[in-house]
Structure formats: structure tokens, C-alpha cells
Amino acid sequence: MSTISVAFVEADKDSRAQLEYALSFASQEIISYRINDATSTIEAEVADEEAGARASEKIQELVQRYANPAFGLPKSVDFRQERDLPVRDAWSELLRRRWVTPVGEGHVILRGPAAQLAGLIDYKIEHMFADTFQAEREYYPATILCKSLDRIHHFISFPEHIDFVGHLQRDLGVIDQFSVECKEKGWSPDLTEGKMAKTDFAICPSCCYHCYEGMEDWKLEAPGRCTTMSVACHRYEGTNHRTMSRLRAFTQRDVVWVGQTPFVIESRAKAEGLIVEWAKDWELSGTLETANDMFFTDDYSIKASFQRQQQAKKELRLHIPFEMQAISVFSSNFHAMTFGKAFNITLGGRPATSGCIGWGIERWVYAIFSQFGLDFDKWPAAPKHEFAAYQAATRRPSGSPSS
Fold it and tell me: Rounded CA gap, 111 and 251, in Å?
């Protein structure tokens, strides 16, 4: 094993966070890495010196990419609420009680109170947001056409995220050979080599994409329409999958507006007011602030700066004391005419405007347990009361395996 060291200069806190995230995708030859603040270097372990030279070049490329955002990343905090929170390892305790079980990289099963809390969050979204905006419920598949992702430039902005869907070739010999080899050797990734059909689908990386795809060539009536949906989404994020802060497979719930610009902007603003109301009522520690997506491509700074400057993306970020970070559990997004143009959705002869708000259900569960603990009697009054009422209404037992 060999260690390489690459110097870097930290531009600002946000750029550093982007760099740390992106390092996960720098090279498969990197075994592990860390940022050494004392020496202002990135230290990485690789197999040998030859691999080190290649990895060092790629790390230097990322350092350059994130060192100096072209227009800066201005931050605006619309809401801040802080509480003194104990540092508790909620992840380990959730695993110990078997309320959460990992079943592969970035995949978890929720059961017992964790599953019930996820149900409460979805229930609250339905009644506090979907009902308020009279959102029409829609149901979507978990997969999406690759050509649809191409039309909205997802492959250009987030190529690292995609989990493609594959299947065996429609060939009797190929199928029989695969079955026999699995019987004889047990399955392994090598057995699919040369046997897979061409890829035309991916697992949805975002909840709302089907909404626009499904409205292709629609002519809307003023002021537009509002929909809500829940989708099992996938985003591959390298070695960033840990605890429930960043899962590879997660449940996303959205409310989407498509129509006239004032309709979208005013609805989005009202929704942001409602999420602040929720955070205050539940005594959650966090902020609602401007944000940007974790763009990985070399035009990162232009895209990220545009989102920040236009306040096109805002996030409710909740503190996770044990991890010494805050995670996004809710996002509010303004797309302008991006999807209206991509799918020819029009209103009054012009491309429709769109915007959406979204919740990561598993992140909400993790953040709440991290802030309040697993003893419900010690929770703040509002979430404790609502959780107890939800359990009673759904007639589900409060206990689950604990050892």
C-alpha cells in the first residue's frame, strides 16, 4: 500500500464540502482518503506508486475544479432555530434495537417505531402540504427512460448518480447459460459479462421527473396544476453512503407545481412558510437556507452559483450533532421553464414554469432520532403527541425487536 499527498487551498466552507463529496468519485484506485487540515493536504491510500500517480492527477483536477467558484456561493438564511442537543449515536442505537437494518450499501429497512415515524412524516406532508395546495395524487414507476433523463440533461449534471437497470439478453442460450452457471457457482457479477441487453432504463434519481415526462405536449389551463407523489429513488454517491445521512436507495415525497410563473413562485413561497412552521412546532434544530446541488461536472461553479444567485434551491438542514454536520431533509426548487421546454408543456402558448418541494423520508427519521433520541417520553411536546396519536390511529404496536 502507498500513500499520496495532494496540497489544496480551502476557498470556503461550501467549496470544501463539495470537494469532500466529489473525492469519493475521483478514482477506483483510491482505497481511502482524508483531508489533513494541519498540513492543508488531501491524503489518500492507494495500492502502489503507479496507482498513486494516476490518482494524484485526478485529485489535483478536482482540487482545481472546486477551489475557486466563478461567481461565489452566496448564502441566505431564511430561518434559523437552534437547541442545545446532546451528542448521541442514534445510528448505532437504531441498529441495536433493530428498528433499522442495512441490507447493502446505502440500503436500509425501517421497522417498528422507525417505520411508524416514516409513516407519520408522510401523513403530515399529505395533510399539511398536499391538502393545502389541493395536489392531485399520482403514482409513478421506480424506473425512468434514459432518453427522458437525457432530455433534461441529467447525465450532463449528475452522471455519477445513475443506477442503471439491466436485464439479460432475450436469447435462450444466454439465459440457460446464466442459470446453469448460477446453479454451479453461485451468482457473481462476473456471470453477467457479455450477457446483458442494452440499457434503456435507470432507477429514478429524483421524485418529480415522471411528472413532467407524463405531461408531454399538454396544454394547461391557467393558473396550472399541482401534483404530489412518492417514489423509491436511487442515487449512487460512492463512499458517501453512511448511516442514513446519504442513502443510495431512499423514499422521496414531492409536491409539484406546473403552470404560470406567479402561481409557481407564490405556491413555493407559501410552502416554505409551512415548513418553517413545522420546524418551529416540532422544535427542530436547523436552518432554511439557499443551497445548490452537488454538481460533479467541470462546469460545477457556473451551475452552483446560478442556483445560489437566483435562490432557485433552498434546503431545510437539520443538525446531526454526532456527525458534526447538518443534513438536508427538505428542498424547495424553482425550475423556471426547464421542464416545460424539455417536454413541450405549454400554457397560453408559452412553455410552462415549474417548481417542486421534496422530503427525504429516511433522512427525516434519522434527523429526528438524532436530535430527540429514542426515548419518546423525552421528545418535545408536539412531535411526541403527534407520534402517539398516529400510532393509536394506525393501531400498530409501539414496540419492536430490541436485541
Answer: 14
Cell of 242: 453512511
Most confident of 134-138, 237-241, 302-306: 134-138
The total number of residues shown for the chain amounts to 403
Determine how β-strand 219-220 pairs with β-strand 346-347.
parallel
Q: How confident is the model at residue 76 (pLDDT cuts 50, 70, 90)?
A: confident
Rounded Cα gap, residues 400 and 41, in angstroms = 46
- Tell which residue, 129, 27, 122, has the closest CA to residue 356: 129
Residues carrying CATH 3.30.70, the chain: 2-67
What pairs with residue 397 in β-bridges?
A: none
Give SS3 for 259. Answer: strand
Residue 403 clears pLDDT 50, i.e. is over it:
no
Of 364 and 158, more confident = 364
Q: Where are the beta strands (DSSP E) in 47-133?
A: 77-81, 100-102, 108-110
Grid cell 436500509 in the structure block, residue: 108
Task: Give me 143's grid cell.
Answer: 424506473
Is residue 264 within 8 A of residue 247, CB to CB? The reply is no
**CATH fold for the domain made of 77-144+205-394:** BirA Bifunctional Protein; domain 2 (3.30.930)
Question: Residue 334, SS3?
Answer: strand
CATH 1.10.10 assigned to 2-67:
no
Least confident segment among 17-21, 154-158, 225-229, 382-386: 17-21
pLDDT digits (tens, 9 = 90+) for 98-117: 999 999 999 999 999 999 99
Q: How far apart are the first and last CA of the chain?
A: 39
Which residues in the chain are classed under CATH 3.30.930.10? Answer: 77-144+205-394
pLDDT recorded at residue 176 = 97
